[in-house]
């Protein structure tokens, strides 16, 4: 049986016209019943913004230093998530939640 998507995982996804790593931020308890998932872009372009959360790229399966860009939120079909890369730890996820709140002005 295939394992589903879990919050805090990094996947390669089709976002717009580009394949890129993304972080799943949708609550885990709804992922089994929704075909859509909200993701944050993972990028190597670091600008030092409060909406960026640093990653230890080696520990999450990425080749290059990267950040989670919480200004770059997208809702995509779960079927657009093509391959699992890795997952972030709870401390990093708390930072992501804080940065999303800041990005949305909450």
Automatic annotation (TrEMBL):
Keyword rRNA-binding: no
InterPro entries: PemK-like (IPR003477), Plasmid_toxin/cell-grow_inhib (IPR011067)
One GO BP: mRNA catabolic process
Keywords: Toxin-antitoxin system
UniProt GO molecular function: DNA binding; RNA endonuclease activity
Stated family: Belongs to the PemK/MazF family.
Protein name as it appears in the record: Type II toxin-antitoxin system PemK/MazF family toxin
Organism of derivation: Candidatus Aeolococcus gillhamiae
């Amino acid at each position: 049986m295939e394992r589903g998507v879990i919050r805090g995982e990094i996947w390669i996804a089709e976002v717009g016209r580009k394949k890129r790593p993304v972080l799943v931020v949708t609550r885990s308890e709804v992922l089994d019943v929704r075909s859509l998932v909200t993701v944050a872009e993972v990028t190597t372009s670091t600008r030092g913004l409060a909406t960026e959360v640093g990653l230890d790229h080696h520990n999450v399966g990425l080749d290059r230093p990267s950040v989670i860009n919480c200004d770059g939120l997208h809702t995509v079909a779960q079927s657009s998530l093509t391959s699992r890369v890795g997952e972030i730890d709870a401390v990093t996820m708390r930072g992501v939640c804080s940065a999303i709140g800041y990005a949305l002005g909450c």
